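Record type: ASSEMBLY
Status: queued
Input:
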Amino acid sequence: MSVYKHAYRAYAGTLTPLWARVGVVVRYGLAEAWSSRITVGLFTLSMLPVIVYLIGIYLANNPVARMIIMHGKSALFTIDAAYFLKVLATQSWIALVMTAWVAPRLVCFDLADNALPILLSHPVSRLGYVLGKFIALFWCLSLITWIPCLLLFAYQCYASTAPWMGANLQVAFGLLAGAVFWIALLSILGLALSSWVKWRVVATGIIFAAVFVPAGVGGIVSAILRTKWGLLLNLPVMMTQLWQRLLGAPEFMRGENSLPDAAIAMVLVLMCLVCVAILNARIRAREVVRG
Amino acid sequence: MSVIELDRLEVRLGGRTVLDGLSGELRGMAIGLLGPNGAGKSTLINTLLGFHEPARGEARVLGLDTRRHRARIRQSVGYMPENDSFIGNMSGVRFVRYMAELAGLPAGEALERAHEALFFVGLGEVRYRNISTYSLGMKQLIKLAQALAHGPRLLILDEPTNGLDPMARRRMLATLQEIRKEGSIRMLISSHLLRDIDETCDEVLILKDGRVAALCNIEEERQSHRNFIEMETTGDRDRFCEALRGLGCECACFAGGHVKLVMPDRIEPRDLYVVASENGTQIRRIHRRRDSLEDIFLRAMDAEPERRELVSL
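Status: finished
Output:
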């Protein structure tokens, strides 16, 4: 005999506060993201560069190990802003791959079977729903970007014999700010583009296309019009310039190809606003059953 | 206590008036929402849930204003939409638990209630299967289970028997009757199937072209026409009818000796036989008929919305 009563009974227990419902969306979003072996695999792969960079820091700070392994050559292992820029850039591009896989999982399953009318008929608003998914994706991306970057920074501070941290606090700030800007943009972009299509594979493709196709178009615009402003469509270049400035690393594009901070900020804000508008339109359109 | 109060409610979508000045108070345990396609049933439900903002007037659910208390209304309501609406790659119990947690139940309670709700609707044995593998009937039931899991005070069901085979339909209606009997949940059931409403509801709101065509208690409406008689006669029918009119009956004659009449309260069926005998008429068959929901619905559809006095309210 079943241990559960088959008769209906009313619920008379306590209720969680309204703001906690966003936490429910986050929790189920994280569970959905990490239920896939591919997500676990991507996370594992994303840790490989971190291990390589960790070994680099270890060798840079350990003359004996350097002597044994590198025969005393230390030029490759100067730990400075440029070194951490490489760490941030590597992890950030892995974050793009992670976004292309995880963001569609968070949204497409809800859209494919038209779950929004039921989800939003509960006391959670459109904003709460999107915020929950955003936090889930942001947290997943945090695990592979600013968290390992700051851990490496902390290890460098610990391993360095010279008083290194005080002189390089800007690097820590740059790592945190640069990664947060990037993963916030990726999260909102990933959710917006995933809400546009029902099929996950298509959504994954669109996310990559949204980053690299405008970059190509920007390159063509720059070449034809002989202007640097085409680079404003080139997200990889724009972000790299932003990271260089935040970390205080030497810029690889100097002079006429260097974009002003205000222009970069404006383009990023504009992208976020467009994504928010897309999300709002798509979710509003699907929140009720059209009969 | 009134379940739903409508006060000159007007809803406009895309520049078109979909609900036009709805007024009324619904108090029944189970309220049927009837109307032809495009009458505004789903729009009314979506307005009650706070998805659509009224352009004019107001609506209250369980005493809460739909504009100001959207979250509290959604807390107190369980909603089962008309179309497929679920997360296919989740197991039944996980989906219902998720919805219960969104409604405000703590995680442990939500899991317990999810199991209970699934057993209650008859999905206990398949609760660990992914919803995408469910049949159409099961998908309807999982929507009902998620609407019930958090113990709502009002259950809004949009076409609950849509697409069900006769047996699944019977099971769904039996479940709804059981919920109604339990007594802690009010129900608002939207359907275009009159029999479903007839079997489950005690009050009905009929919409036509976005307006209230009828709002009545089904049982009272039936009772008010308890003296409706159909007869099959032979002999001098015209004289017989004339005599019946003399007694105060409203009488109509049809071909083949068919006579329909509404008797005043003081007249008994026995008197009809006496009058027939006095006028040389034989009554071959007599049938005392109760008003069906179909009669109520058809009268409402025939009546002009502006002239609501034609409909018994």
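Annotation: The longest strand of chain B covers residues 16-26.
Annotation: Confidence is low (pLDDT under 50) at residues 306-313 of chain B.
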